């Protein structure tokens, strides 16, 4: 659940930025561009929510199953905190993107260059939302990509040789610090 949810969150966000918003920008009718981009994102939103939910439920189960390793193996706690931080940031940016998208849904029929690119005639408040959404659409895959890298690191930390070395290293550090 954890990995599949993350893969869908990352891949769907990247595909949306490249394909949905890119295709909307290719439409010849500048007043239809927001409508098309919004329709694509509206179709993706429930799937994305399910993917994020699966990732979070799977992550909680993994954390529970590996709580001993998190507490006792050198490097695992720091990796876990980094992963939780990136996941939290990705959740915040995703939620903010959805709020911006809802604002743009109310602006359908406005002349724009693309889903996240305003035209010169785009009203300032819509242009502002589009520029922020343009940043968010790239932050989400960057953050979830970072979570994916940390997930791979966690997998490497689970290898039996790494677990033994990590479990020995941490108490040894404590003993040196106490001495």
Describe this structure in words.
The chain has 179 residues and is mostly helical. It has helices at residues 2-26, 33-65, 67-72, 76-105, 124-157, 160-178, and strands spanning 112-114, 117-118. It has a two-stranded antiparallel sheet. Helix 4 runs antiparallel to helix 5. It is elongated, with a radius of gyration of 21 Å. The mean pLDDT is 91.
Give me the number of helical elements.
6
Largest sheet: 2 strands, antiparallel
Low-confidence stretches: none
Shape: elongated
Strand order of the largest sheet: 1-2
SSE arrangement, N to C = HHHHEEHH
Number of strands: 2
β-strand percent reads under 5%
Range of helix content = over 70%
Sheet/helix structural class: mainly alpha
Distance between the termini: 44 Å
Rg value? 21 Å
pLDDT averaged residue by residue: 91
Short structural summary:
The chain has 179 residues and is mainly α.
Question: Notable features of this structure?
Answer:
single chain, 179 residues, mainly alpha, two-stranded antiparallel ribbon, 2 strands, elongated
In terms of topology, how is this protein built?
Blueprint: H1 2-26, H2 33-65, H3 67-72, H4 76-105, E1 112-114, E2 117-118, H5 124-157, H6 160-178
Helix pairs in contact: 1-2, 1-5, 2-4, 4-5
């Amino acid at each position: 659940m954890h990995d599949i949810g993350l893969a869908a969150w990352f891949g769907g966000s990247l595909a949306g930025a490249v394909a949905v918003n890119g295709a909307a920008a290719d439409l010849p009718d500048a007043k239809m561009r927001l409508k098309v981009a919004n329709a694509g994102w509206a179709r993706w939103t429930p799937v994305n929510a399910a993917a994020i939910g699966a990732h979070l439920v799977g992550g909680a189960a993994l954390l529970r199953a590996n709580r001993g390793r998190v507490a006792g193996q050198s490097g695992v706690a720091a990796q876990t905190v980094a992963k939780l931080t990136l996941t939290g940031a990705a959740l915040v940016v995703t939620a903010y993107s959805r709020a911006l998208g809802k604002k743009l849904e109310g602006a359908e029929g406005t002349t724009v260059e693309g889903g996240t690119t305003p035209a010169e005639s785009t009203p300032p408040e819509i242009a502002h939302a589009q520029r922020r959404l343009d940043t968010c659409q790239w932050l989400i895959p960057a953050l979830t990509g970072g979570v994916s890298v940390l997930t791979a690191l966690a997998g490497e930390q689970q290898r039996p040789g790494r677990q033994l070395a990590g479990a020995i290293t941490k108490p040894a550090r404590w003993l040196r610090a106490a001495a």
